[in-house]
Amino acid sequence: MLKGIKLKLYPNRTQQNQLEQMFGNDRFVWNQMLAMMNERYQNNKALPFFRQVQAELSA
Asked: Which segments constitute the Transposase putative helix-turn-helix domain (predicted)?
């Protein structure tokens, strides 16, 4: 069974800046990988396996 937990954060200014930076980085990586997946799909009509994508992220 899946359960969720809601929680509210009250970060100070420094923590808020760090969270914004972290989420911005996550969004950048997501968009880069999405663009790569779209390009590969348009060229090959096939998507890479999870392990291939994971290897490219850590390279």
From this structure: 1-45
What is the DSSP-derived secondary structure letter of residue 6?
-
The tokens of 3 are what? 């359960």
pTM: 0.70
Q: Which amino acid is at 5?
A: I
Average confidence (pLDDT) per 10 residues, the chain, 59 residues: 90 97 96 90 84 83
- Structure-token pair, residue 26: 């996550």
Contact 35/43 with Cβ under 8 angstroms? no
What's the one-letter identity of residue 34? L
